[in-house]
Design a protein that fits this description.
The complex is a heterodimer of chains A (about 575) and B (about 290). Chain A has about 575 residues and is an alpha/beta fold. Helices cover about 35% and strands about 20% of the residues of chain A. A seven-stranded mixed beta sheet of chain A has the order 9-8-10-11-13-12-19, with helices on both faces. Chain A has a six-stranded mixed beta sheet with strand order 2-3-1-4-5-6, with helices on both faces. A five-stranded mixed beta sheet of chain A has the order 16-18-17-20-21, sandwiched between helices. In chain A, helix 4 crosses helix 6, helix 7 packs parallel to helix 12 and helix 15 packs across helix 18. The radius of gyration of chain A is 26 Å and the shape is globular. Chain A starts with a strand and ends in a 6-residue tail after the last helix. Chain B is an alpha/beta fold. Chain B is about 30% helix and about 15% strand. In chain B, strands 2-1-3-4-6-5-8-7 form an eight-stranded mixed beta sheet, sandwiched between helices. In chain B, helix 1 packs across helix 7 and helix 4 crosses helix 5. The longest helix of chain B is centred in the first third of the chain and has 15 residues. The N and C termini of chain B lie far apart (about 50 Å). Classes of the chains: A alpha/beta (about 575), B alpha/beta (about 290). Chains A and B meet through strand 7, helix 7, strand 8, helix 9 and helix 10 of A and strand 1, strand 2, helix 3, helix 5 and helix 11 of B. Bound molecules: thiamine diphosphate and iron/sulfur cluster (SF4). Iron/sulfur cluster binds next to loops of chain B. Chain B: This is 2-oxoacid:ferredoxin oxidoreductase subunit beta.
Amino acid sequence: MPDDLNWAIGGEAGDGIDSTGKIFAQALSRAGRHVFTSKDFASRIRGGYTAYKIRSSTDKVESVVDRLDILVALTERTIEENLDELHEGSVIIYDGERTEMQDVDVPEGMIGLSVPLQRLAEEAGGAIMQNIVALGAACEVTNFPIENLDSALEKKFGTKGESIVDNNKEAARKGQEFVAEEFDHEFDYDIDTTDNDYVLLNGDEAIGMGAIAAGCRFYAGYPITPATDVMEYLTGRIEQYGGEVVQAEDELSAINMALGAARAGARSMTATSGPGIDLMTETFGLVATSETPLVIADVMRSGPSTGMPTKQEQGDLNMTLYGGHGEIPRFVLAPTNVAECFQKTVEAFNLAEKYQTPVFLLADLSMAVTEQTFEPEVFDMDAVEIDRGKVVDEDEVEAWTDEKGRFQPHFPTADGISPRALPGTTDGAHMSTGLEHNSLGRRTEDTDVRIEQVDKRNRKVQTAQEEEDWSPREFGDEESDNLVISWGSNEGAMREALDFLEEDDVSVRFISVPYIFPRPDLSDDIEAADEVVVVECNANGQFADILEHDALTRVKRVNKYNGVRFKADELAEEIKESLQAEEVTA
Amino acid sequence: MSSDIRFTDFKSDKQPTWCPGCGDFGTMNGMMKALANTGNDPDNTFVVAGIGCSGKIGTYMHSYALHGVHGRALPVGTGVKLANPDLEVMVAGGDGDGYSIGAGHFIHAVRRNVDMTYVVMDNRIYGLTKGQASPTSREDFETSTTPEGPKQPPVNPLALALSAGGSFIAQSFSTDAQRHTEIVQKAIEHDGFGFVNVFSPCVTFNDVDTYDYFRDSIVDLAEEDHDPTDRDAAKTKILDADKEYQGVLYQNEESVPYSELHGLDSNMADIPDGAPEDAMDLVREFY
Ligand SMILES: Cc1ncc(C[n+]2csc(CCOP(=O)(O)OP(=O)(O)O)c2C)c(N)n1
Ligand code: SF4
């Protein structure tokens, strides 16, 4: 068996699946193993199947695969739900003493470990710890040093007092001992530990952390899956830096509050998902025409309307790129993994202030709720630079006033970027508006001024295109005639798919694009390739449309829109099929 | 902030395009006087305006200002004030802006009690879109979109504010310059959300709620034995649909504004050049 371990716990929502999974993930990470988690969850609080899955290896893991080695099944349905991924030799841990689990059918070739989770938990101090008993059992199956689990338990329950921690450790021991005593066969899953230090976090947390690092001090939002974790992360932390999180009455309010704070000079952001971004659309144009720096994160989930709130999709690309009436200069960044959620958030704040535009951070559910391990240095705080752009102080204001001494916040400069006087700056008082305005910020319908201001705002995009680095990342065989392009969180699965493809002697050049707008010009790459496949989690291929438009050519598409992210092995298979398929016809 | 600030310093050199005689002139003059009287100057003042004739106010005043989208001025003001507590924030809008499209924000701004002043120029009609019914229009008021009247009772903004836990609720009449200025001034001085509904007649589209009508019907609380700290007394007056009151109807003297409750006292524009010094702690939390 490879060192790659695929573990899951599943049961009913409300069974503590999430926190138990997180504890095990943390234990693995503390033992110097890489971890990549995924969640199957339904949109309800109690009842309904839910699972927390962990893929773990001593090597970096960046996607989920179609395989499950150890499954803690708290309900019979958990086994049914995962049948496809279970294989010969898979271990299923379940509580055969529970009435509803007595008749569990362990499929042929698999190893069923009936462990009295509830009874052992009670012996350790309370039935509530039955999941921890299962974790102890899993440690035994994998020969995983249980001390790592202890330290994860200390982290989780440390604040609740020593006796709670001790009881949980005891519960884990009972699970471990039970398996050691009752089942004498050797298991195949002998996993290694290393001395490496990793941190384990999800994309929403990384966005929140990036925001604080970048000096964001104001966040207004309205709860929505899967963006809420950003707000929950910032709450209680941003205050330590003099900031504030406001739970607004709705998204219309949230984005306008964030806009107000930004106009007062704070680095400010809001985050939401599909239905919320719709409501915020009204204000996109105001942000852009008033030239207010604002970061708007859209953590995509499956749509349209309320769609499948707990499922994956990359369906809002067009929305963030084109949403809003009229034409709006904006930037759209799409991080490709959890660490990049951090880096792109920092970048978003700098771009927003430098160019005084809305900057969209287009993340997706799979990345937002996925915990991933990284070397802590990946979150390099020393590398965080803060560029506040053309903020003018009271001495500089005069250079930007007209003949009557009035400050001109929308002065049509050569690079399109105007001076910015933060409120409180002496002699900088000015107004700004969503109405078309002149350089003073005053309403106008003068045809020449209209053109001058529209051009000025668009010029900012040109300047950014020239001054900033919008390069994509490249993997695989750079000489290959097969080109695969993806954006957002597909990068991890695709990188692993490259290995699978190599095994099948299919060579592929892979370009991962973290920028939607501005974006790298891939026309030459597309032109040079024989076959071009664009991979994305939506039905219609929104990014493929754009690339076809950019390169005036047709590309093949691999789309997934059942609500689940790409898996590496599955993706490899689909790419292979797509490459072999007939040419796309115009 | 200088002490020789005059109210004209808050005037921009842009001539208002309001119809001659519009109530908004008086409302705005009172606001500028109140700002100057309370020791503010244009550089520390932020005016947020909504949409409508009333919303044009930010253009005619001189200060830091934002003219936003319809109905959302209060959230903008909230963001401005929380981000920089040193700014004097004044939000202005119309009855359509505040009680129709922005009604949700109104209730929540009231209960959030951010220390700012909200002035609504209530002309009981939509002015800028040329005369449709507004939420404060009378039940039988005939307009282009309600030829037989709206046939629904008008919103009572003061009652909404009181029920949402408002800490300062007042009403004034734009043409009564001295009283109007005095009332807005009290709203500015109030620690918390100072709400003033101003009768600001539309001379073009509203021939019912006119200067004459208000002049004849207004009861000034200064001439009545009204104790604004008495919530029950305020309630009785506010729910009295037959009277138009001028004055401070209710003021909670114990009001603690949002920023104080949340310990916000710094200007959020001041941030370090890079990540905070202890930022690696944020990463270590994830060990
Ligand atoms: C979202 C949106 N809907 C409609 C409008 C059109 N509109 C402009 S002003 C206005 C009504 C303003 O009425 P009120 O707030 O009473 O202000 P007044 O003009 O009477 O001062 C409307 C509906 C708009 N600008 N935005
Ligand atoms: S239409 Fe009415 S509210 Fe608008 S400016 Fe004229 S008088 Fe004033």
